[in-house]
Amino acid sequence: MQVLVLVAAVTAALGISYFWSAFSVKGLEFNHRFEKERVFFGDTVNYIQELTNVKILPLPWIRVDTEVPAAIEFLKGNLAPHHRADKKILSGLYSLLWYQKVRRKYPVYCRNRGIFALGPGILSTGDVFGFFNKEKSLGSTARLIVYPRIVDVAVVEGRPDITLSGVSGRKTLLTDPFYFTGTRDYVPGDPPKDVEWKSTAKLERLRVKVYDSSFTKKICILLDVNTFEIAWEGIDPELSEFLVMLAASISKRALDQGCQVMLASNGRMISPDKDTDLITLIPYGSGSMHLRTILECLARLSNYSIFKMEEMMPGTLGMLKKGSKVIYITGSWGKNGEKVVKLLQKMGMDVALVLAGRKNAELKGPEGVLTYHAFGEEVWREISLIRLV
Questions:
Q1: Predicted model pTM
Q2: CA distances, 198 to each of 43, 100, 177, 195, 352 (Å)
Q3: Ramachandran region of residue 376, left (φ > 0), alpha (ψ -120 to 50) or beta?
Q4: What DSSP element (H or E) covers 15?
């Protein structure tokens, strides 16, 4: 008799477990996202997972395994290795009653620029006894864009301002003294009457008014992402990130000064799906939304290109406007760079050359080209100022 009771109990438990497991994934909803989809390098942002049980059947255990990029750092959560070196598995255990919703936050430290996709994943659950398990594929992705670092850019005393010197339109025409469109940092030569004292007091540095004008300053940032003149020689990752940071910082400086800014690079703009544009061309624009466009482009920019700068010039020259200043940023100065600069000079462009990295400290640009040197690639994550010498 006792054996029959035991057999009946086991059979009933197995039956309950089977049907429990069969219905466990039904009415179970999963969502994930970031609190903010766009952040800067060095920021911490919360990655949020939400599970909702929209049925009367409680779920004593639920496991969610999500593919996450290894390039972002989770400050909390259980991470397991992935078969791909650039990925990890984030595992989380949950328990839900009937018609219950739970939310879990994972703080993420953004230690690399880029565009990142979290997901897909697998949801596992089952009965209370653990006899039967069910799995459900989670195809949705949560995306995050990490902008490059932006720091102050200063020119050593006695050198011309890199963004304003030589730019056509520096002395604007038909300015309206009663209407100004914003403020920018003071540069030597600005009249005292243009100082905007409210912004100066708030930011604790001299700011001057940017007046509405019929003539706008135009600057093209030309960025060579390769850190060696011959592409197959490899990549200097620290110098590569320093170049991107330099381009972002100079772009912001120029936009703050009321310039229209264009960005051109031989680097590809990578997407989470790995489909890319061959080169990068962002047309002239101004204002905060244009800065956002440039930063998003630089976030996606690869640190290697099979193209030399001279090979991308035909498309770039078609977008350059007459009277524009070109700021050429490179960490691999050589014959290819000289060809690009001479071509721009031949077209009548005012060119400023920025040679980045210690290895270029003794090199000079062509005659007649204003040349600056920028150092600090080995400590680019810590510095707050880039000095152009």
A1: 0.82
A2: 29, 52, 17, 9, 33
A3: left
A4: helix 2-24
Total residue count of the chain as it appears in this document:
389
* Spatial separation of the C-alpha atoms in residues 384 and 225, rounded to whole Å: 22
Structure tokens at 73: 């750092």
Write out the residue limits of the CATH 2.60.40.1530 domain(s) in the chain: 27-147
d(C-alpha 352, C-alpha 89), whole Å: 46
Look up the CATH number of domain 152-174+213-388: 3.40.50
The structure tokens listed for 360 are: 């270029």
Where do the CATH 3.40.50 domains begin and end in the chain?
Answer: 152-174+213-388
Q: DSSP character for 309?
A: G
Match domain 27-147 to its CATH number in 1.10.8.60, 3.40.50.980, 1.20.1250.20, 2.60.40.1530: 2.60.40.1530
pLDDT along the chain (389 residues), means of 10: 59 56 77 97 98 92 95 96 94 94 97 95 80 84 97 88 62 46 68 82 80 69 92 89 98 93 92 66 92 96 89 88 92 93 91 96 91 96 95
